[in-house]
Design brief:
- The protein has about 190 residues and is mainly alpha-helical.
- About 80% of the residues lie in helices and about 0% in strands.
- The longest helix is centred in the C-terminal third of the chain and has 30 residues.
- The chain is globular.
Length: about 190
Protein backbone atom coordinates (compact mmCIF):
# COMPACT_ATOMS: atom_id res chain seq x y z
CA UNK A 1 0.00 0.00 0.00
CA UNK A 2 2.85 2.39 0.84
CA UNK A 3 4.42 1.83 -2.59
CA UNK A 4 1.14 2.80 -4.27
CA UNK A 5 0.95 5.98 -2.20
CA UNK A 6 4.56 6.80 -3.07
CA UNK A 7 3.85 6.28 -6.77
CA UNK A 8 0.77 8.51 -6.63
CA UNK A 9 2.64 11.22 -4.72
CA UNK A 10 5.52 11.04 -7.17
CA UNK A 11 3.13 11.29 -10.13
CA UNK A 12 1.47 14.38 -8.69
CA UNK A 13 4.74 16.10 -7.86
CA UNK A 14 6.08 15.36 -11.34
CA UNK A 15 2.91 16.71 -12.95
CA UNK A 16 3.12 19.85 -10.84
CA UNK A 17 6.75 20.33 -11.89
CA UNK A 18 5.64 19.92 -15.50
CA UNK A 19 3.22 22.82 -15.08
CA UNK A 20 5.84 25.05 -13.41
CA UNK A 21 9.07 23.66 -11.97
CA UNK A 22 10.25 25.73 -9.03
CA UNK A 23 7.39 26.15 -6.57
CA UNK A 24 6.53 22.42 -6.58
CA UNK A 25 10.17 21.69 -5.76
CA UNK A 26 9.91 24.15 -2.86
CA UNK A 27 6.62 22.62 -1.68
CA UNK A 28 8.09 19.11 -1.81
CA UNK A 29 11.23 20.23 0.01
CA UNK A 30 9.26 22.05 2.69
CA UNK A 31 6.90 19.11 3.24
CA UNK A 32 9.84 16.69 3.33
CA UNK A 33 11.66 18.89 5.85
CA UNK A 34 8.59 18.81 8.09
CA UNK A 35 8.07 15.07 7.38
CA UNK A 36 4.54 15.69 6.12
CA UNK A 37 3.69 12.84 3.76
CA UNK A 38 7.22 12.56 2.34
CA UNK A 39 10.71 12.43 3.80
CA UNK A 40 13.87 12.41 1.70
CA UNK A 41 16.21 12.06 4.69
CA UNK A 42 18.39 8.98 4.40
CA UNK A 43 17.90 8.69 0.63
CA UNK A 44 20.21 9.67 -2.22
CA UNK A 45 17.86 12.63 -2.69
CA UNK A 46 18.17 14.10 0.80
CA UNK A 47 19.56 17.30 -0.73
CA UNK A 48 16.02 18.13 -1.91
CA UNK A 49 15.04 19.09 1.64
CA UNK A 50 18.25 20.87 2.63
CA UNK A 51 18.16 24.66 3.11
CA UNK A 52 20.92 25.27 0.55
CA UNK A 53 18.88 23.54 -2.19
CA UNK A 54 15.70 25.36 -1.24
CA UNK A 55 17.53 28.71 -1.23
CA UNK A 56 19.01 27.97 -4.67
CA UNK A 57 15.53 27.17 -6.01
CA UNK A 58 14.19 30.44 -4.59
CA UNK A 59 17.03 32.41 -6.21
CA UNK A 60 16.46 30.78 -9.60
CA UNK A 61 12.72 31.45 -9.27
CA UNK A 62 13.44 35.15 -8.66
CA UNK A 63 15.66 35.29 -11.75
CA UNK A 64 12.94 33.63 -13.84
CA UNK A 65 10.31 36.10 -12.61
CA UNK A 66 12.57 39.02 -13.54
CA UNK A 67 13.34 37.56 -16.98
CA UNK A 68 9.63 36.85 -17.60
CA UNK A 69 8.95 40.57 -17.57
CA UNK A 70 10.71 40.79 -20.94
CA UNK A 71 8.41 39.62 -23.71
CA UNK A 72 11.30 39.11 -26.14
CA UNK A 73 12.52 36.12 -24.12
CA UNK A 74 9.09 34.52 -23.62
CA UNK A 75 9.52 31.63 -26.10
CA UNK A 76 12.99 30.49 -25.08
CA UNK A 77 12.15 30.92 -21.40
CA UNK A 78 9.02 28.77 -21.67
CA UNK A 79 11.01 26.06 -23.46
CA UNK A 80 13.71 26.18 -20.80
CA UNK A 81 11.11 26.01 -18.02
CA UNK A 82 9.56 22.96 -19.67
CA UNK A 83 12.91 21.20 -19.80
CA UNK A 84 13.70 22.08 -16.20
CA UNK A 85 10.21 20.95 -15.19
CA UNK A 86 10.69 17.56 -16.82
CA UNK A 87 14.03 17.14 -15.07
CA UNK A 88 12.70 18.21 -11.68
CA UNK A 89 9.60 16.06 -12.17
CA UNK A 90 11.82 13.03 -12.73
CA UNK A 91 13.89 13.92 -9.68
CA UNK A 92 10.86 14.43 -7.41
CA UNK A 93 9.22 11.17 -8.49
CA UNK A 94 12.45 9.21 -7.92
CA UNK A 95 13.00 10.88 -4.55
CA UNK A 96 9.47 10.03 -3.45
CA UNK A 97 10.01 6.38 -4.38
CA UNK A 98 13.37 6.36 -2.59
CA UNK A 99 11.60 7.34 0.64
CA UNK A 100 10.38 3.76 1.23
CA UNK A 101 12.18 1.58 -1.30
CA UNK A 102 15.63 1.07 -2.79
CA UNK A 103 14.14 0.79 -6.29
CA UNK A 104 13.89 4.51 -7.12
CA UNK A 105 15.23 4.62 -10.69
CA UNK A 106 11.87 3.83 -12.36
CA UNK A 107 10.73 7.13 -10.86
CA UNK A 108 13.16 8.97 -13.11
CA UNK A 109 11.46 7.56 -16.20
CA UNK A 110 7.89 7.79 -14.95
CA UNK A 111 8.43 11.25 -13.48
CA UNK A 112 9.87 12.55 -16.72
CA UNK A 113 6.89 11.18 -18.64
CA UNK A 114 4.32 12.62 -16.20
CA UNK A 115 6.02 16.01 -16.24
CA UNK A 116 6.29 15.97 -20.04
CA UNK A 117 2.57 15.24 -20.37
CA UNK A 118 1.66 18.04 -17.98
CA UNK A 119 4.07 20.45 -19.68
CA UNK A 120 2.76 19.67 -23.18
CA UNK A 121 -0.88 20.00 -22.13
CA UNK A 122 -0.22 23.22 -20.23
CA UNK A 123 1.79 24.78 -23.04
CA UNK A 124 -0.91 23.97 -25.57
CA UNK A 125 -3.68 25.34 -23.35
CA UNK A 126 -1.78 28.51 -22.48
CA UNK A 127 -0.99 29.08 -26.15
CA UNK A 128 -4.69 29.01 -27.00
CA UNK A 129 -5.66 31.16 -24.02
CA UNK A 130 -2.85 33.69 -24.55
CA UNK A 131 -4.07 34.36 -28.11
CA UNK A 132 -7.47 35.45 -26.79
CA UNK A 133 -6.32 37.74 -23.96
CA UNK A 134 -5.18 41.33 -23.89
CA UNK A 135 -1.67 42.21 -22.72
CA UNK A 136 -2.63 42.85 -19.10
CA UNK A 137 -4.49 39.57 -18.74
CA UNK A 138 -1.64 37.68 -20.45
CA UNK A 139 0.69 39.03 -17.77
CA UNK A 140 -1.32 37.21 -15.10
CA UNK A 141 -1.01 33.78 -16.74
CA UNK A 142 2.29 32.89 -15.01
CA UNK A 143 0.67 33.60 -11.65
CA UNK A 144 -2.16 31.17 -12.45
CA UNK A 145 0.33 28.54 -13.58
CA UNK A 146 2.41 28.90 -10.41
CA UNK A 147 -0.73 28.70 -8.28
CA UNK A 148 -1.92 25.59 -10.08
CA UNK A 149 1.47 23.95 -9.65
CA UNK A 150 1.61 24.72 -5.92
CA UNK A 151 -1.91 23.45 -5.27
CA UNK A 152 -1.30 20.27 -7.29
CA UNK A 153 2.01 19.62 -5.52
CA UNK A 154 0.52 20.10 -2.06
CA UNK A 155 -2.58 18.04 -2.79
CA UNK A 156 -0.61 15.21 -4.38
CA UNK A 157 1.36 14.74 -1.16
CA UNK A 158 -1.59 15.07 1.22
CA UNK A 159 -4.28 13.45 -0.98
CA UNK A 160 -2.22 11.20 -3.25
CA UNK A 161 -5.05 9.85 -5.48
CA UNK A 162 -5.57 13.37 -6.86
CA UNK A 163 -2.60 12.70 -9.13
CA UNK A 164 -4.58 10.11 -11.11
CA UNK A 165 -7.32 12.66 -11.74
CA UNK A 166 -4.84 15.33 -12.74
CA UNK A 167 -3.00 12.93 -15.06
CA UNK A 168 -6.30 12.17 -16.79
CA UNK A 169 -7.08 15.87 -16.97
CA UNK A 170 -3.73 16.65 -18.62
CA UNK A 171 -4.27 13.81 -21.13
CA UNK A 172 -7.76 15.18 -21.85
CA UNK A 173 -6.38 18.71 -22.35
CA UNK A 174 -3.65 17.48 -24.68
CA UNK A 175 -6.05 15.35 -26.73
CA UNK A 176 -8.66 18.11 -26.92
CA UNK A 177 -6.09 20.69 -27.98
CA UNK A 178 -4.75 18.47 -30.72
CA UNK A 179 -8.26 17.71 -31.93
CA UNK A 180 -9.04 21.44 -32.12
CA UNK A 181 -5.80 22.09 -33.95
CA UNK A 182 -6.52 19.37 -36.52
CA UNK A 183 -10.10 20.63 -36.98
CA UNK A 184 -8.79 24.14 -37.48
CA UNK A 185 -6.22 22.89 -39.98
CA UNK A 186 -8.90 20.90 -41.83
CA UNK A 187 -11.12 24.02 -41.90
CA UNK A 188 -8.29 26.06 -43.39
CA UNK A 189 -7.70 23.43 -46.09
CA UNK A 190 -11.40 23.52 -47.02
CA UNK A 191 -11.33 27.32 -47.32
CA UNK A 192 -8.46 27.17 -49.81
Amino acid sequence: MQLLIDILQGMGLAEAAGVRPFLPALVAGALATADVGIDYEGTPFSFLERPAWLLAVVLVLIVVVVVQRRDALAGPLESALQGIGIGLGALLFAATLADNTDMWWPGLLAGGLCAALAAAATRQLIGRVRARLDAEARGALPVYLEGTAVVLAGLSVVVAPISVLSLGFFAFLLRGGRRRASEKYAGLRILR
